[in-house]
Amino acid sequence: MVTLYDVAKSAGVSPKTVSRVLNGDGPVGKATRDSVEAAMQALGYVPSSAARALRSAKSGLIGVVSGAISYTDDNPLLAGLPEIYILRGIQDVLDEKRLTVLLTDTGGRADAAPGLLNTLARHRVDGTIYVAPFHQQVALPPPTAVSAPLVVANGFADDATSAVVPDDYTGQRVLVDGLIARGHRRIAYLQLPHALLATQHRTRAYEDAHRAAGLPLDPGLMIVADRVDDDAEARTATLQHAIAALLATSPLPTAICCGNDRMALAVYGMLRARGLRIPDDISVAGYDDYRLISETLYPALTTVALPYREIGRQAARLLTEPQSGTRRITVPGPVHWRDSVTTIT
Amino acid sequence: MVTLYDVAKSAGVSPKTVSRVLNGDGPVGKATRDSVEAAMQALGYVPSSAARALRSAKSGLIGVVSGAISYTDDNPLLAGLPEIYILRGIQDVLDEKRLTVLLTDTGGRADAAPGLLNTLARHRVDGTIYVAPFHQQVALPPPTAVSAPLVVANGFADDATSAVVPDDYTGQRVLVDGLIARGHRRIAYLQLPHALLATQHRTRAYEDAHRAAGLPLDPGLMIVADRVDDDAEARTATLQHAIAALLATSPLPTAICCGNDRMALAVYGMLRARGLRIPDDISVAGYDDYRLISETLYPALTTVALPYREIGRQAARLLTEPQSGTRRITVPGPVHWRDSVTTIT
DNA sequence: CGATGTCATGACATCGATGTCATCATGGGT
DNA sequence: ACCCATGATGACATCGATGTCATGACATCG
């Protein structure tokens, strides 16, 4: 390994001067700088961040705790994508600031967190972002003696911890307001389980939108159509029942809001199996804007984007641009109107 | 920060003894070990991997270069998922060995690699895994003075670099053999662009399967139905044309192999828009086993799994369990037979 | 019973950077 | 002509671990 001392010797200067060239600390003469840089080039010098970290207590690492990698196939409902987008937002910001991500994965087990935080502490990360798989309250281990700043993304912990969460209410509200504006009067809502915070916020938005428009709320149109823990077949069956119940109402709904795009994908198939055309007979909307689904479905799916990337960005900024005190940020996501929704004249 | 010296003082032993307890090097008396461990507990000691790395030249970090994070929405064709699964396989192995992933992302630009490798070198990673977004030859920057061992996953570089790649030939071959065994005689093949190595291998497999069964090869059934660089609409149009061409042949094909699951998803919609039932009128198969698509589609999609997770595992093992010389490993993936394929009697 | 080996432990140097403080020109201000 | 701020550079200690070598206490062996 070429060290800073080798560079110094080769350039005929002191180690400290090389350090100054490297970090732009003190002033360095033009000629000296050039010869140092030439020496670094010639020797193929690569600074050791271990040594730097040891001396200056800055590792240049940001720890990330997430299930982005492992959730991918454990839970197809979530499919890991949200966390990937959040990671991407984090990268956006950290790249600019020349920080590197030290990634640890929960492997889907919530009790993995303490061990992972310990690993991050060993590496003396300059800060940690804890990424929740979906909008929820997370339980953090008690802050140890070694506590770099910590931010929760896509969830929140307690009042002493900064957090960034999606604005579920506004997303659903804008969607339903938009459907009403497009002439829909009987709008069904196939919900995700009520245990999800997102469902609670979105349900309130669905109801508020109806109230604001002076429309009645028909309980027959609001059905929980997914489960959390079951296997794929049981979940399909749950959805089948919901669709059957919906199509038994009269008059038929003209639009169906689905809890997420994945549900919408299944709904497409089920409606068509019953001979219904989308959007001519019935409009469909999703949630999440999984572009893999929403753009590929035929017709393309109207859906609400969750601003995951922006959540990641905000979290990274919160962490790296020291603010005063603890903050909680709510990030709204736009509705993408596509061909699966028609206007009723 | 609590250091090893604090622990030593508190336990009344020398720093070196604490180090021995930590690493299990030399022998340590039972009583001494207990008091040291108690002191570590009490003080909340967390070892500094920077100091350890500096002294012993082992960082406990494995660098990963991939586009897993950034590809996610830049290129819906690939959608990042393959790389996520590969990462997962890597994690499987590294977790066991108590190594941590230092993740750097190409941001979708191939020319980002040299800079990323330099970042990894600064952190003195114990090894590097270069993850290719799809099966291809990758161009690595010239090995610098600082070269930890490197392995390419899901691609290959040159004869001096170990690599792990998927077995595209066998996957497609088993699929087409299986379709023929199920009575299909006119099997269409909607290919991905020929520029992809995967397409070349799979096309050979498709042809070999026909030859082996004594079936004629109809060029009208082999259509390139996707493009690499175009926007979503142009790609949909390309696929539409392919479907139209296919349905103009006589007799109609009884099965369609798609280049990937995403294409199969679109094909479902297009066939149904033309009034064809799946699988009654025509069977459909995909490739990749994106479970998000393959398990959710209705009916569920028959497809070939790409063994991404296993590729990641093998790559991590290749890196961390030093073998003799350079190796190249080919990993096969199984066919998942689901309801989108019917047997012709 | 002395030689020898193993166990248990400590002293000290060292890994490769940076922080602190000192040194020595140089040049502008008065 | 003198003072002092500023620029350019270096000497030296230091960050927190581990590698090397040394030491003393026992146990074992011929």
Key attributes of the depicted protein:
homodimer; 345 residues; alpha/beta; 434 Repressor (Amino-terminal Domain); Rossmann fold; 3 domains; 4-stranded parallel sheet; 13 helices; elongated; DNA-binding
Itemize the secondary structure elements and their pairings.
The structure is a homodimer of 345-residue chains.
Chain A: H1 4-11, H2 15-23, H3 30-43, H4 49-56, E1 61-66, H5 71-74, H6 81-96, E2 100-105, H7 113-122, E3 127-137, E4 150-156, E5 162-166, H8 168-181, E6 187-191, H9 197-213, E7 222-224, H10 232-247, E8 255-258, H11 261-273, E9 283-285, H12 291-294, E10 303-304, H13 308-320, E11 328-331, E12 335-336
Parallel strand pairs in A: 1-2, 1-3, 3-4, 4-5, 5-11, 6-7, 6-8, 8-9
Antiparallel strand pairs in A: 10-12
The first copy, chain A, binds a DNA duplex (30 and 30 nucleotides) through residues 1, 3-5, 13-20, 22-23, 25-29, 32, 47-57.
In short:
By secondary structure, chain A is α/β, with parallel strands linked by helices. Chain A has helices spanning 4-11, 15-23, 30-43, 49-56, 71-74, 81-96, 113-122, 168-181, 197-213, 232-247, 261-273, 291-294, 308-320, and strands spanning 61-66, 100-105, 127-137, 150-156, 162-166, 187-191, 222-224, 255-258, 283-285, 303-304, 328-331, 335-336.
